[in-house]
Amino acid sequence: MLRIKNLTCGYDSKIVLKDINFKIETKELVGIIGPNGSGKTTLLRAVSGVLKPKEGAIFLEEKDIRLRGVKELACELAVVSQTSPLNHMTVEEFVLLGRIPHYQRFQFLETKKDIEIAERSMSLTDTLKLKHRPLAEISGGERQLVVIARALTQEPRLLLLDEPTAHLDITHQAGVLDLIKKLNREFGLTVIMVLHDLNLASEYCHRLLLINEGRIHKAGLPEEVLNYQIIEEVYKTVVVVEKNPVSSKPYILIVPEEERQKERSR
Q1: Whole-number mean pLDDT of the chain?
Q2: Is it the case that residue 202 has pLDDT exceeding 70?
Q3: Which residue would you say has higher pLDDT here, 86 or 220?
Q4: Domains of the chain, CATH where assigned
Q5: In this structure, how many other beta carbons lie within 10 angstroms of the beta carbon of residue 83?
Q6: pTM higher than the cut 0.70
Q7: Alpha helix (H) ranges present in the chain?
Q8: Could you tell me the end-to-end alpha-carbon distance of the chain, in angstroms, rounded to an integer?
Q9: Which of 13, 130, 182, 201 is the most exposed place for a label (fewest CB within 10 A)?
Q10: DSSP characters for 109-151?
């Protein structure tokens, strides 16, 4: 599905990512993790075509994304960004924006098919009941599901999400990630998402890509990436890594400074 070869990119003269190489297979769910400022969002922006490589290339189904038009690329991949919309459009009007890449020449209004696809996306995200509500009047968790509904309305094969659980409570975190997992498992949607919460990344992702200081520090299965030596080296904090008693996935526990001092004084 996606192949990144020798990617170096950044903003103006500042290099953020250096010599990035990795592949993502069709129907994978891959998490990008790493400290603040390591280049996670920059990588997502490069994959989406917003940020042009300074060196190297990104291939979507073996075609360089620089050779794809904006409309063609928008029919293949969709992006759910950190910025949540807040305006007076209704949920349905906002979700229908996802159909614009599929508009025919001289088409200015949505067709019956466009409306059916939008309603199906809202149904999948459990937001159909909100279709007539203004975005400004729904909760943050509901708004995040609406943004995902708009992305699904594009009918992409690749979904990119930048911290989809940021600022959400535990109920909405689970709801959003359960939905993403369902879309991946039942509909074959390939997913790449940036996550700050290592435990959520461990539970929901097939593979993890750990970025540190603009380079890939480690890539692999959660149990290969999330061990205490790697986490302490990259995040500069003391942790204990256990197994989740239900899923057997790695579970990270932070050791507070006070507890470390107690341990040293014994």
Answers
A1: 90
A2: yes
A3: 220
A4: 2-226 (3.40.50.300)
A5: 8
A6: yes
A7: 40-47, 70-76, 91-96, 112-124, 140-153, 170-187, 198-204, 222-225, 228-235, 257-265
A8: 53
A9: 13
A10: S--HHHHHHHHHHHHHTT-GGGTTSBGGGS-HHHHHHHHHHHH
